[in-house]
Design goal:
Layout (H helix, E strand, L loop, with lengths): L1 H5 L10 H4 L6 E6 L4 E6 L10 E7 L1 H22 L20
Antiparallel strand pairs: 1-2, 2-3
């Protein structure tokens, strides 16, 4: 209670080394139900018949919306610093034969 009264509540985030190294993904697949959003991060490699999911993140709807807002803010900051991010018109240009299996 003393921390709450003094306003010194801090959350210490621990980043384990294996997580801190990161995982590369060049495709995200997003699905949802009424109670959650599921983000599957995939690594697609040219000439490979399968593309494994590297990581799956499951979010409550309100946290998915907070993530959307945070991404919008950070993309705006990035584009102010480095210029616009261009996206090709064709959505699946790099992955023409993409099919999914859960």
């Amino acid at each position: 209670m003393e921390n709450q009264e003094s306003g010194n509540n801090h959350l210490q985030i621990e980043l384990r080394e294996e997580v801190g190294l990161g995982t590369y993904s060049n495709l995200a697949i997003i699905t949802h139900s009424s109670s959650e959003f599921i983000l599957d991060f995939v690594r697609v490699l040219p000439g490979m018949p399968k593309a494994p999911v590297q990581s799956r993140v499951i979010l409550a709807p309100e946290h998915a919306k907070r993530l959307l807002r945070a991404l919008e803010e950070n993309i705006a900051k990035y584009e102010r610093a480095f210029g616009p991010i261009s996206i090709p018109e064709e959505k699946n240009l790099a992955f023409p034969n993409l099919t999914g299996e859960a």
